[in-house]
Amino acid sequence: MQVPVEIEVDLGNKTFEVEVFSPPISGLIKKEAGIEKGSGLQAKQNVANLSIEQIIKIAKSKMNNLLCNDLKSAVKTTIGSCTSLGILVENKPASEVGDQVDSGMYDKEIENEVAETPEEKRKELDSYFDQLKAEQDKQLKLENKGEEEASEKK
């Protein structure tokens, strides 16, 4: 995983300092989701489905480097990055989950800092995403086929 590194060199004393920072939040999300890159078509195609517990885990690990006052705002920041990457949270678009965090729907999990997804819940999330991915792939094939037919007519 790539991490930001800052090197300060003092030519007068011939010394240097190396400071290694934590990985970017998008890198942590992709690692947690098990993907190499986000979706280039966030509105049409999702690439993963994370649980709120996974989001809390990422937010906790990145908390020191975020400009957030509390874990709830760090969770919202993490969810915002999921939106940009085309990642679902709890089987819903990340932006919708961000609104639910605002309304207090996940306050219990955030306050208790729950960072482990129950196995049954993980299976449900994976099952939902597998079905969604199959639908998305089918839709993408239809769109590509339509584009090919249109270009052949020209």
Describe the protein.
The structure is a single chain. The chain has 154 residues and is an alpha+beta fold. It has one domain (24-146): Arc Repressor Mutant, subunit A, CATH 1.10.10.250. Helix content is 55%, strand content 13%. The chain is built from 6 helices and 5 strands. It has helices spanning 25-33, 52-62, 71-85, 94-103, 107-111, 119-153; strands at 5-10, 15-20, 48-50, 87-89, 92-93. A 3-stranded mixed sheet has the order 3-4-5. It has a two-stranded antiparallel ribbon with strand order 1-2. β1 (5-10) and β2 form a beta hairpin. α3 runs antiparallel to α4. The model has no long low-confidence stretch (mean pLDDT 87).
| Assigned CATH class | Mainly Alpha
The main β sheet shows up as: 3 strands, mixed
The SSE order reads EEHEHHEEHHH
Number of strands: 5
Shape: flat
CATH superfamily: Ribosomal protein L11/L12, C-terminal domain
Strand ordering within the main sheet:
3-4-5
Detail the poorly predicted runs.
Answer: none
**Can you name the CATH architecture?**
Orthogonal Bundle
List the defining traits of the structure above.
6 helices, alpha+beta, 154 residues, Arc Repressor Mutant, subunit A, two-stranded antiparallel sheet, 5 strands, 3-stranded mixed beta sheet
Provide a short characterization of the protein structure.
By secondary structure, the chain is α+β, with helices and mostly antiparallel strands.
